[in-house]
Amino acid sequence: LSVPPELGAAYAQAAASGSTLWRELLQTRVGTPNLADMLLPAPQLPVFAQLGPAVSGAIAALGFAAVSLVLLADTRLETPYPSGRYDAKEADLYFAERPGALLVRSLDLLRLGLRFGIALFIDWRFDALERNEKQRATELVVLLTRCGATFIKIGQALSIRSDLLAPAYIAALSQLQDRVPPFSNEVAFDMIRAELGLPAPPPGASSAEVPSAFSSLSAQPVAAASLGQVYRGTVRETGVEVAVKVQRPGVLEAIAMDMYLIRGAAGLAKRVFPWINTDLVGAVDEWGLRFVDELDYEMEAQAAMSFRDEIGKTPLASVVCAPLPVLPLSSRRVLTAEWVNGVRLDNAQNTKGDIGRLCAVALTAYLTMLLETGVLHCDAHPGNLLRTDDGRLCILDWGLVTAVDGELQISFLEHIAHLTSRDYDAIPADLVRLGFVPAGKEDAIAQAGVAQVLAQLYEQLAGGGGAKKIDVGEVGRTLTGLTQSYGNLFQIPPYFLYILRAFTVLEGIGLQNDPDYSIIDACLPYITRRLVTDQSPRSRAALRSFVSSQAASGAGRQIDTRRAQQLVGGLSGYASATRGVNASGTSEEEDAVAIGARLLLDERGNPVQALLLEEAARVVDAVLRDYAGTVSSMLERAGPAARALDPLGAWGVAKRMLAKEEEDEEVLRTVRSLLLGAAP
Questions:
Q1: pTM attached to this predicted model
Q2: Cα distances (Å, whole numbers) of residue 386 to 276, 324, 355, 651
Q3: Which residues are catalytically annotated?
Q4: Does residue 70 or residue 633 have the better pLDDT?
């Protein structure tokens, strides 16, 4: 197309003049400053001077129309969540009045995502993925940062998965944990004053003046993340050193819009792919509920205090902590807590070589939250896990938590016990109770050989190394075959997403320290301790399942020597993980002896004593039957003399009643094995 140069220049000048204005207006309304660059292209792009007045005019009209939709939208609702918590129906009403804002955000995400996706496709097409890895990793961090808090959270979750992503991506994404670009001190300090009811700066003073409640605050944030940034300071009245977290302005509406769009996409995906059993919309709602709750710093303070109280009642009290909130200097958008000196858990150079111990402590602490206290910290990226100067594990940032009810806790306990003891036959029933198998699919699960498929998968996981050690292709082909024969058997219950997030991050930290780390085996210390102390009938049944295996005769289960030793080893590991930092070291053998003595001599009784009494009765019965068989053989060899001693044939009747069965032989073999294993 041919256009007069002066017309092209005039359009470029108009675009340049209008770009700044529209950018400012859009930033005020929807926090999307780069829309002007997308719809009102920069004048230095020569292509737009060659498009002709018709095409240029159409582009300009589209830009002005989209912007007008944003600026002229009805604003009767002032916030997407008037109740203060995530509510999909409230968000529907709010964004129904803002179609322009949704259009802007959708186009912006599409533009940014397509640009990166096309770059990756070109790299793949020309075999340049590895060569351009560092550049693409940097571009991905920029992309996620520009997309906002929702997508930064996704990047944080990926940043620790060294078994899934290349090192260049791990290194780049780790910046999202606490090095997101900060907002200005003036905005942050003004928010502190407004939230805490502090006086404004004196006339003529800058907003960057330190708020009056503090004698000092760091000149720059010490950490900046997706939802807020943290300053190090000192409380004026007490002199206590504190961390002051300030929420990013406008973050609630940005998150609400993303959740609205993601929820719509989830509903569309469910309609397009009806064979998916998982409640995608429900999963998004669960995510949204916790995500929005994370913006309420008063709830975060209460969660941290609750954790401190609950963990103080457990053996972990001396090795795990959380910062104490300063409630008088905290609000919904500002949180003040005691300052904790320490280094990140993934900073192996500065953890004095005990990162392996701290990984064990961390996993034990998270299992305690999941299966005992019932409130799980779900934001377990390395920036939130510190090794304190005195060697303890400190868990930061309690905004993202999820509650786990008692019924779910015991079902998880059973499931993890079955996993760690390799009792794979019990797995299908566990999956039904936990909601991973839809109602009505129980028979299909039993017929489809799911136990064998999961046994293969769990054995690969138990072998260590994370997802990279799994034969994904083989597992995928097997599951596809099951789906073709029985339909889709599996679903992901919405409650599980945050639990999965927490433990995959912990596994990622473990894999960074040890490439062969196995999270299933690492669960053993806590699970064994819980099984031997929990008095509930289901826990006792899980304990029996843990230490026994199916008898060769098929007649019930027998104590398994290997599993019994595994139980003792797990208890020793728990003692090691929960031992105070300054406590004197003992060997695993000494730990095992001490734990065994406490269990056997506990006057209150415990599941181990009950199990031993039950097994003792079976052993006595088997020994008596064995003895009866021996006596019977002696009498038979004695001939007529023996019959003279028993003229009524009473011994013959007793012999038939006390005849040994295969189960008795197996009990005796187990006893002999245990005695040989205990021999010096």
A1: 0.71
A2: 39, 15, 10, 72
A3: 379
A4: 633
